[in-house]
Design brief:
Number of domains: 2
Keywords: Cell membrane, Endosome, Glycoprotein, Immunity, Immunoglobulin domain, Innate immunity, Lysosome, Membrane, Signal, Transmembrane, Transmembrane helix
Largest sheet: 8 strands, antiparallel
Bound molecules: 2-acetamido-2-deoxy-beta-D-glucopyranose
GO molecular function, one term: cell adhesion molecule binding
Transmembrane segments: 303-325
CATH superfamily of the largest domain: MHC class I-like antigen recognition-like
Membrane topology: Single-pass type I membrane protein
Helix content: 25-40%
Protein name: CD1d molecule
Number of helices: 6
Length: 337
């Protein structure tokens, strides 16, 4: 009973400190990269992502959109998927033609590189928001806002001209609205439902420590590696006791080849201040069981070894005495009888 109580009490702080993952929005994003190298050479490639998972790819050389996950058609029937694909096939042809015409009209120099990011963010509770942004050489120039094309705030004058031309095309604006307002959120809801098991996948992180190149005389760079986790949100912090070390430096979360993630978190400390440092990892796959790794520097190890070296012979000695005493006592007790 007392043991149970103790367990409960010691378990409580961990329950309170539990790492809650907020209910997640899903963003479906299509990225299009188009390079117009000269008047006769161009290519367009597209990628589709649902959150951190790549779902689709469409190379310039292919007529069909490639599925990268078995559930990438979402809830669409084969017929509905073919219809959607045709819309994009027509779009790709007209995009190439229109851009080439516009470049000719504006007498703009090649090469021109265009990036388009379009899609929608769907709230599991039902609402959604769509977006379509166009950038040139990585700088935003144009976006679709509600019912109209709008130039980006810093866009050059030629973009304003293009925007006026685009806004005259009612047919295209209607298609864009229907794709953004209706098709995208419906498609994403279908994807979320069919891909549930992949999207809710949980992979536990592994963590290990190492030391990096010394940042300066008398200083050490402690490195905490966390790898193999999924999904992407993770909390990693260097701690001294219960104190978060605020100068912890967090790297970028990088992809592993097996669709899990890797993160490196470092701390620059004076060599004399390493006692009691640990790296703490919280992740949804771990529940309340945070990973805590203590920094055991050489001096700690040798102190441990010294204690071990003194303690073990001492214990053996005590045990030997005890056995000898016990046998002696028993035999002398027998002698008495
Ligand atoms: C266009 O660019 C491609 C690829 O760089 C090149 O092979 C081709 O000769 C160029 N064509 C013209 C007309 O400049
Ligand atoms: C890309 O596709 C277009 C249209 O299908 C084609 O005209 C063009 O030559 C292709 N570009 C390359 C580099 O293969
Ligand atoms: C989730 O998406 C909705 C609209 O789709 C948006 O209003 C809301 O701010 C988003 N929530 C988060 C946490 O991003
Ligand atoms: C699409 O959504 C925007 C708001 O995001 C709205 O202004 C517009 O009227 C909608 N268009 C259609 C056809 O539903």
């Amino acid at each position: 009973m007392e043991f149970l109580l103790l367990l409960l009490v010691s378990g409580l702080p961990q329950v309170w400190g539990r790492y809650e993952v907020p209910p997640e929005n899903f963003t479906f994003r299509v990225l299009q990269i188009s390079s117009f190298v000269n008047s006769s050479w161009m290519r367009t490639d597209c990628l589709g992502w649902l959150g951190e998972l790549q779902t689709h790819r469409w190379n310039n050389d292919s007529d069909t959109i490639l599925c990268l996950l078995p559930w990438c058609h979402g809830g669409l029937s084969e017929q509905q998927w073919q219809k959607l694909q045709r819309v994009f096939q027509v779009y790709r042809i007209s995009f190439k033609r229109d851009v080439q015409e516009i470049l000719k009209m504006l007498r703009k120099d090649y090469p021109v590189e265009l990036q388009i990011s379009a899609g929608c963010e769907v709230d599991p509770r039902g609402s959604s928001e769509s977006f379509l942004h166009i950038a040139s050489e990585g700088v935003d120039i144009l976006s679709f806002q509600g019912t109209l094309w709008e130039p980006a705030p810093e866009a050059p004058p030629w973009v304003h001209m293009v925007t006026r031309v685009l806004n005259l095309d009612e047919g295209t604006k209607e298609t864009v609205q229907s794709l953004l307002n209706d098709t995208c959120p419906q498609f994403v809801r279908g994807l979320i439902e069919v891909g549930k098991s992949d999207l809710e996948k949980q992979e536990k992180p592994k963590a290990w420590l190492s030391s990096g190149p010394s940042p300066g005389p008398g200083r050490l760079l402690l490195v905490c590696h966390v790898s193999g986790f999924y999904p992407k949100p993770v909390w990693v912090m260097w701690m001294r006791g219960k104190q978060e070390q605020l100068d912890t430096q967090r790297g970028d979360v990088l992809p592993n080849a097996d669709k899990t993630w890797y993160l490196r978190v470092t701390l620059d400390v004076a060599a004399s201040e390493m006692a009691g440092l640990s790296c703490r990892v919280k992740h949804s796959s771990l529940g309340d069981q945070d990973i805590v790794l203590y920094w055991a520097d050489e001096s700690h190890v040798s102190v441990g070894l010294i204690i071990l070296a003194v303690l073990v012979p001492l214990l053996l000695l005590v045990a030997g005495f005890y056995l000898w005493f016990k046998r002696h006592w028993t035999s002398s007790a027998q002698d008495v009888r």
